[in-house]
Amino acid sequence: MIWDQILDWFNPMIEFLVQAAKIVEKYWPMLLRGAGMTLFVSILGTIFGTVIGFIIGTIRTIPLAERGFKRGILKIINAILSAYVEFFRGTPMIVQASVIYYGSLMALGIDMDRTFAAVFIVSINTGAYMTEIIRGGIISIDKGQFEAAHAIGMNHTKTMFHVILPQVMRNILPALGNEFVINIKDTSVLNVIAVTELFFQTKSIAGNTFKYFETYFVTCLMYLAMTLIVTRILRHVERKMDGPDSFNIIPGNQMQVAKPEDLLKKK
Amino acid sequence: MEKVIDVQHLSKSFGENEILKDIDFSVGKGEVVCIIGASGSGKSTLLRCINLLEKPSGGQILYNGENILDDHHNIYAYRTKLGMVFQQFNLFNNHNVLKNCTIGQIKVLKRSKEEAEKVALKYLKVVGMDQYINAKPRQLSGGQKQRVAIARALSMEPDVMLFDEPTSALDPEMVGEVLTVMKELAKSGLTMLIVTHEMQFAGEVSNRIVFMDKGVIAEEGSPEQIFNAPKQERTKEFLKRVLK
Ligand SMILES: Nc1ncnc2c1ncn2[C@@H]1O[C@H](COP(=O)(O)OP(=O)(O)OP(=O)(O)O)[C@@H](O)[C@H]1O
Ligand SMILES: [Mg+2]
């Protein structure tokens, strides 16, 4: 009596899971390819976006010369770069994707490879955000780090490469992870230009099977799995970059002192 | 005596504020000169003008007779000739102790890694920090950081060492270890220009003391003369305040 009732309760749920499992069974290659495309576009987009961010963020923090030609050029470049940042931060990526893809197709007659277009759009979009994150990261580094580098004769470029940017890289890692996770989710908007990422594949599967709930449920779990894994990996990288909490004291022995790197290896 | 640094009519303004006014002074080879004076009198600004961390507003700075404020002068090469030690240590946070002492040698002086490490270890030994080459700055005490900062500057093998209140950010029990290192350096014949509030130390190490007040050099002389027989009224007042 009571068992029947409980079964009545659970039946739809079990039925749902069975249907979801069937979809996975039948369509897993498509789903996996979609997830693969999503990861491919978001990884490349995040990497290129970070590179763009480092380049532009660094240019935007070059100290202005007091006068002269260089100052004028730098001012113009800065104006262009800040227009870029404002534009891509101030418009939705789904609209940018449509404008760039269909724009280049119709106005310029260029039929962009869709995957290329996807990576391109995610990269410049991420670049706009990373530029501000990295500019903030550079500004927040203690002035003393710049001065110490200048005091031993480093010019601005050397100072940035060997002292400032490595510290910025470490400091922005959490923000970078955040961008990556956002990209994994937001690449779903690229279905407007028919990039075969996970959301696009899901839509086709759902359209074929009419099992909308089950299909999107599976996809939901796949997105969650991707973002969780990526977050864990980045945490690990952060800890790696911090190095060990303790250090080895090197006994004052001539032989060992001469070869510090050997001691490091033994650890 | 051969002048290494010769400052002539140096002035420096921040906006409307004239912080340094017509400063004339020099440091001879092998000399140890201490700059003393009240807070805000312009001691740090003077030191920072000398290695061009601040751009002087007027006057000349001659290094071995050459005016380094000439437009064509290579300020990066010039800075390698001056070692700077900051109040806040400013060790490179992303590098360990050894790398702090080698990076300038490798990237600026273009020494090989092996040579740079040999030089770095030599000076880390001088400051008693050769056992800590693997440590990151955040793992060191203030006194240890400052000794590494001194080794970093020495590793560039500069002609002159500039110290801007190297012990002011330290807990009292760590002041001694840094001053001991500096006394050793002074004895070794290194040319040093030191801004300090440690009067006893200044008296012990220096050949000459420069007293600054409100952006001018109010008085300079041997430690005996400045501490025992100051000529200027404001020197007397300052010493009365800090020595009691
Ligand atoms: N970048 C700056 N902009 C404006 N004013 C400045 C700047 N740097 C220093 N000053 C001013 O210059 C004056 C002298 O400063 P400086 O740091 O040289 O003094 P100091 O003698 O080293 O003092 P302390 O013993 O406290 O270190 C101070 O009044 C300070 O406010
Ligand atoms: Mg000062």
Can you tag this structure with a few keywords?
heterodimer; A: 267 residues; mainly alpha; 10 helices; 81% helix; flat; disordered C terminus; B: 244 residues; alpha/beta; 6-stranded mixed beta sheet; 4-stranded antiparallel beta sheet; 10 strands; 38% helix; globular; binds adenosine-5'-triphosphate; binds magnesium ion
**Any idea what the radius of gyration of chain B is?**
18 Å
Largest sheet of chain A: none
Q: Quickly count the helices of chain A.
A: 10
Count of alpha/pi helices of chain B: 9
Number of strands of chain A: 0
Spans of chain B of 5+ residues with little confidence (pLDDT < 50)? none
**Secondary-structure class of chain A:** mainly alpha
Strands of chain B, count: 10
> Quick check: average pLDDT of chain B?
94
Give Rg of chain A in angstroms: 25 Å
Q: What is the share of helical residues of chain B? A: 25-40%
Strand order of the largest sheet of chain B: 6-7-8-3-9-10
Could you tell me which chain pair has the largest interface and how many residues each side has? A-B, 31 and 40 residues
Give a quick account of the main beta sheet of chain B: strands, pairing sense, barrel closure. Answer: 6 strands, mixed
Strand content of chain B: 25-35%
Strand content of chain A: under 5%
How do the helices and strands follow one another from N- to C-terminus of chain B?
EEEHEEHEHHHEHEHEEHH
Helix-and-strand structural type of chain B: alpha/beta
Q: What pattern of helices and strands is seen along the backbone of chain A?
A: HHHHHHHHHH
Which oligomerization state do the chains in this entry correspond to? heterodimer
Q: What form of chain B results from the Cα inertia axes? A: globular
Give me a quick take on this structure.
The complex is a heterodimer of chains A (about 270) and B (about 240). With about 270 residues, chain A is mostly helical.
Topology record:
The complex is a heterodimer of chains A (267) and B (244).
Chain A: H1 2-60, H2 69-89, H3 93-106, H4 114-139, H5 143-151, H6 156-186, H7 198-209, H8 212-242, H9 254-258, H10 260-266
Chain B: E1 3-14, E2 17-28, E3 32-37, H1 43-50, E4 58-63, E5 66-67, H2 75-80, E6 82-85, H3 97-107, H4 113-126, H5 142-155, E7 160-164, H6 172-187, E8 191-195, H7 199-205, E9 208-213, E10 216-221, H8 223-228, H9 233-243
Parallel strand pairs in B: 3-8, 3-9, 6-7, 7-8
Antiparallel strand pairs in B: 1-2, 1-4, 4-5, 9-10
Helix pairs in contact in B: 3-4, 3-5, 4-5, 5-6
Bound molecules: adenosine-5'-triphosphate and magnesium ion.
